[in-house]
Design a protein that fits this description.
The chain is α/β, with parallel strands linked by helices. It contains eight helices and twelve strands. Strand 2, helix 2 and strand 3 form a beta-alpha-beta unit. The longest helix has 13 residues.
């Protein structure tokens, strides 16, 4: 079924997602906060819009952009650059604009950081109150959007292509948490999962963990990737596991009957 889809935030994930959906004959609109990226979006076969949430909603032709079957929200909260309330205020502004469209279908790209590190497997129903959340900003944002027909995708650490996770650890010494398992997801899998979710009509008002099903230890994965891609090998101190979590994606696998392109972070596809 052909859909009209608006993607709020065409960055590292949003732009290739928009291009992929457009290549499958969906009518796609994409937003950016930078004039310089409008032509890049257009070249991807996507109708470009300049839209900002400062946190108030700003932009020309807002009604055109939001006139679609599905809205995909892909604007990670920049907590390091703003206040903890900023992303919540962004979602409040967005919800206020959309208040007259209660049947609106939304896919919200959230994060598994919403779970606290609890030294256990975490599943979608493990947190029901903001007090229990790890990232309380994301949990509050999710709650705002639940008044619509929303699918919340809690994504593990996004990786792939130019985002090689080992870059952040290369050459470092005496790293802790080496015995902690990783929770990662390749960009190609996120795009394919969103594509498959869009094709179905029975998944709305749902939350899914989006994580590769295999979780190697940091001390095993990162030195291996460093050697494979010619980075300086990181070294981990002997230590106890520390506070960790394993993100369980069984609900996604079962309800979508999904087979991961990259189930094991050792085999993720990178440019370097």
């Amino acid at each position: 079924m052909i859909r009209s889809i608006s993607i709020l935030g065409c960055g590292w994930l949003g732009l290739p997602l928009a291009e992929f959906l457009a290549s499958h004959s969906h009518a796609v609109k994409g937003s950016t906060t930078q004039d310089s990226k409008l032509n890049l979006i257009k070249q991807a076969g996507v109708q470009p819009f300049l839209i900002k949430l400062t946190p108030s909603l700003e932009g020309n032709k807002l009604s055109d952009f939001f006139s679609s079957d599905i809205l995909i929200i892909n604007i990670p909260p920049a907590v390091a650059k703003t206040s903890e309330d900023f992303h919540v205020q962004q979602m409040e502004a967005l919800a206020k604009y959309l208040k007259n469209s209660p049947e609106r279908k939304i896919i919200y790209v959230s994060s598994t950081s919403v779970y606290p590190d609890m030294n256990a497997e975490v599943r979608e129903n493990d947190i029901e109150r903001v007090e229990d959340a790890g990232n309380k900003t994301l949990f509050r944002a999710e709650e705002i959007l639940k008044s619509y027909n929303t699918i919340i995708l809690r994504c593990a650490g996004l990786a792939g292509y130019d985002r090689n996770i080992v870059k952040y650890f290369a050459g470092k010494k005496n790293l802790s948490m080496g015995n902690c398992p990783v929770n990662l997801i390749h960009r190609d899998d996120v795009i394919e999962i969103i594509f498959q979710v869009i094709q179905k009509d029975n998944l709305w008002n749902n939350i899914f963990n989006v994580s590769a099903p295999e979780h190697p230890l940091r001390k095993d994965l990162y030195p291996s990737l460093a050697q494979k891609f010619n980075y300086e090998i990181p070294h981990y101190a002997l230590s106890l596991p520390g506070k960790c979590k394993i993100v369980n994606a069984d609900k996604l696998i079962n309800e979508l009957n999904y087979q991961f392109k990259f189930p094991n972070p050792f085999s993720f596809l990178y440019n370097k």
